Amino acid sequence: MNIRIRVLITISFYHGCSTFLPIFDANVDTYDSLRERSPFAVTVICMVAAKVRDGGGSASEVYLKCLEEVQTISCATLFSPVSRQEAVQAMSK
Known about the structure:
Elements: H1 2-14, H2 31-37, H3 39-54, H4 61-78, H5 85-91
């Protein structure tokens, strides 16, 4: 699973989406680094990457699972103090 997530993030996100809104730096914000610092940010990136991979078609199971997790975490984050920069970066997606 880690390899699939790593590929999804690298190919779909850093080599596509991030050029339009470069919030994360691929040289600093690697998968391993983000995973350690902010699982929320990794989940948001996976959600965006899955949506891009789905194209205009119907939403994939990966996208829907990521969306559900992002919504759960973001609701908790909105009503509590944000202690990490990555949480704010992820919210901007």
